[in-house]
Amino acid sequence: MASFIGRTMMLMLLILFLTITCEARTYVRIINDLGGGLNLTVHCKSADDDIGVKVLRSKEWFEFSFKPAVIIRTDFYCSFQWPGSFKWFDVYYEARDLNDCSECWWSIKSTGLGPCRLNWETNEYDHCLPWNKD
Ligand SMILES: *[C@@H]1O[C@H](CO)[C@@H](O)[C@H](O)[C@H]1NC(C)=O
């Protein structure tokens, strides 16, 4: 009897452990849609992680992924640099994005308000947000 309870407990702990560790990842993708053959230099960070500096050629993209934290919020911000411009943007802001995207794909253009996120329903980059204020 004791061993039956013991085994049931172990099984429940295992299930709990798997539920926590297999939690879905979030994917952030950055696409260079500046046009004009311009390279885009991107540097993304969170409080704990530094993704490093990436240079994207025209139309090139890169992606990183992470598990949104349960207790402490996860936020990733990047700097975006191309000739004549230096911008900041929160590519993942948990309070804004947690229930909105698990594949957060951002198109970076030199024109307009700021980055535009892929809307998976319309298949268009029509969810545009302003660059961060300095
Ligand atoms: C873009 O970057 C690549 C190397 O990463 C370089 O070879 C190329 O000349 C750059 N293009 C422009 C337009 O600066």
UniProtKB/TrEMBL annotation:
Pfam family, one: Self-incomp_S1
Subcellular location: Secreted
Annotated signal sequence range: 1-24
GO cellular component, one term: extracellular region
Main location: secreted
Keywords: Secreted, Self-incompatibility, Signal
Superkingdom per UniProt: Eukaryota
One GO term (biological process): rejection of self pollen
Family: Belongs to the plant self-incompatibility (S1) protein family.
PANTHER family attached to this UniProt entry: PTHR31232, S-PROTEIN HOMOLOG 29-RELATED
Record's protein name: S-protein homolog
